[in-house]
C-alpha cells in the first residue's frame, strides 16, 4: 500500500521545483550542468546508503576493476543522476528541429531504426535502460515527427508528475501508467505504432531470470511476450552523453527481428536475454553513465540470499 500523501507538501514541493526551474534558466545549461556535477559529488559523500549500493553493484559487475576505479565510477554515476534532472528541464528549450544536430550525433544503427519507424507496415517495440539520458530518446523521436507511447511509473507527487508529463509529451510522446497500460499498448501495436519501455527494471519474483553483468536479474516477461504476439522487431537504443555539455550520441545497440527467434526452443528466453545483453553492451561502453544506485538485482532466484552492500 502506498503511503498517504500530504497535498500541501506536494504543492509546496511543486512550487519549489518551479522556482528552481525559473532560476536555472537565468544561466546557460553548461553552468547548470557544472553545478549538477558538484551536487552529485556532494551526494556521493553524504549519501552513504546509495554510495554503498552503487559501489557494490559496480564491484560485482566488474570484479576485475580496482577499488579506486569502482569508487570513481560510482561518483560519476551519481553526478550523471543530477545532470539528468538538469537536462530534462532544458530539453524543450534546446532540442528543436532546427537545433537537433547541434546537440545530437547519430551512432550505432540508428538510421535503420528510423527506416523501421518510417515504414509503419508493422508495430515496433523500442527499449533502453537507465543509461545516459534515457529521457531524451523519446523526445528526439517526437522532434523528428515520430509519435510513440512510453510505459512508465508516474511520480508520487501528482503536481510534479503532471508538469513533467507536459514537458515529456510536448512533441508527440504519450506517457501511460504501467499499471493498466495493456489497452494502450495493444491499441498502439494494432495500429502499427511504437511502444517504448525502460527494460532494465527489477521484475520481482514473477520475472524471468536472465544474465545481466554476470548475475541473474529478474526481468519482465511482457516485452518478449508482446514481441512474440505481434511479431514486431525489438529495437534496443541508447542516448550516451558526449563530454559534460548538453551533447549526446543517439544510437541503436541491437535490433531483434521476429525471424531471429523463430527457430528458438524458448523464444521468450531468447528475446529477454538478447535485449538484456544489448543494454549491458551499451553500458560497458561508458559504465559511469549507468544508474548503479537502482536495485536491478534486488530479487534473487529462489534459494539465493539477498545481496549485501556493507
Give structural notes.
The chain is of the alpha/beta class. It is built from 12 helices and 9 strands. It has helices at 7-24, 29-46, 48-61, 67-94, 100-103, 110-119, 135-143, 158-168, 182-190, 222-230, 258-261, 267-284; strands at residues 104-108, 124-128, 148-152, 173-177, 194-198, 208-212, 215-219, 234-241, 248-256. Strands 1-9-8-2-5-3-4 form a 7-stranded mixed beta sheet, with helices on both faces. A two-stranded antiparallel sheet has the order 6-7. A hairpin with a 6-residue loop joins β8 and β9 (248-256). The chain is globular and about 55 Å long.
What keywords describe this structure?
310 residues, alpha/beta, seven-stranded mixed β-sheet, two-stranded antiparallel sheet, 12 helices, 9 strands, globular
Radius of gyration: 19 Å
Total number of β-strand segments? 9
What composes the largest sheet? 7 strands, mixed
- Annotation field: number of helices: 12
Low-pLDDT windows of residues: none
Q: Roughly how much helix do the residues carry, as a percent range? A: 40-55%
Mean pLDDT score, rounded? 91
| Major sheet strand order | 1-9-8-2-5-3-4
**Given the helix and strand composition, which structural class is it?**
alpha/beta
Shape: globular
Q: What distance separates the N and C termini?
A: 28 Å
**How large is the share of residues in beta strands?**
15-25%
Please provide the ordered H/E string of secondary-structure elements: HHHHHEHEHEHEHEEEHEEHH
Amino acid at each position: 500500500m502506498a503511503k498517504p500523501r500530504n497535498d500541501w507538501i506536494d504543492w509546496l514541493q511543486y512550487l519549489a521545483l518551479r522556482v528552481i526551474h525559473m532560476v536555472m534558466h537565468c544561466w546557460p545549461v553548461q553552468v547548470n550542468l557544472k553545478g549538477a556535477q558538484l551536487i552529485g559529488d556532494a551526494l556521493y559523500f553524504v549519501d552513504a546508503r546509495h554510495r554503498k549500493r552503487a559501489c557494490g553493484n559496480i564491484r560485482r559487475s566488474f570484479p576485475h576493476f580496482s577499488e579506486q576505479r569502482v569508487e570513481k565510477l560510482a561518483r560519476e554515476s551519481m553526478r550523471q543522476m543530477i545532470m539528468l534532472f538538469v537536462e530534462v528541464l532544458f530539453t524543450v528549450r534546446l532540442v528543436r528541429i532546427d537545433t537537433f544536430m547541434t546537440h545530437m550525433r547519430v551512432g550505432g544503427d540508428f538510421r535503420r531504426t528510423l527506416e523501421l519507424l518510417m515504414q509503419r507496415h508493422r508495430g515496433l517495440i523500442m527499449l533502453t535502460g537507465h543509461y545516459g539520458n534515457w529521457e531524451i530518446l523519446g523526445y528526439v523521436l517526437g522532434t523528428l515527427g515520430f509519435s510513440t507511447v512510453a510505459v512508465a511509473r508516474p511520480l508520487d507527487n501528482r503536481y510534479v508528475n503532471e508538469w513533467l508529463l507536459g514537458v515529456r509529451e510536448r512533441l508527440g510522446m504519450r506517457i501511460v501508467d504501467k499499471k493498466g497500460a495493456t489497452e494502450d499498448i495493444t491499441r498502439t501495436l494494432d495500429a502499427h505504432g511504437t511502444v517504448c519501455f525502460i527494460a532494465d527494471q527489477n521484475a520481482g519474483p514473477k520475472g524471468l531470470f536472465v544474465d545481466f553483468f554476470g548475475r541473474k536479474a529478474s526481468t519482465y516477461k511482457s516485452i518478449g511476450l508482446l514481441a512474440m504476439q505481434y511479431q514486431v522487431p525489438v529495437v534496443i537504443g541508447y542516448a550516451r552523453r558526449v563530454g559534460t555539455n548538453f551533447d549526446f550520441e543517439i544510437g541503436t545497440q541491437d535490433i531483434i527481428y521476429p525471424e531471429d527467434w523463430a527457430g528458438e526452443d524458448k523464444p521468450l528466453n531468447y528475446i529477454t536475454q538478447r535485449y538484456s545483453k544489448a543494454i549491458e553492451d551499451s553500458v560497458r561502453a561508458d559504465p559511469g553513465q549507468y544508474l548503479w544506485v537502482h536495485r536491478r538485482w534486488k530479487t534473487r532466484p529462489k534459494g539465493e540470499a539477498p545481496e549485501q552492500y556493507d
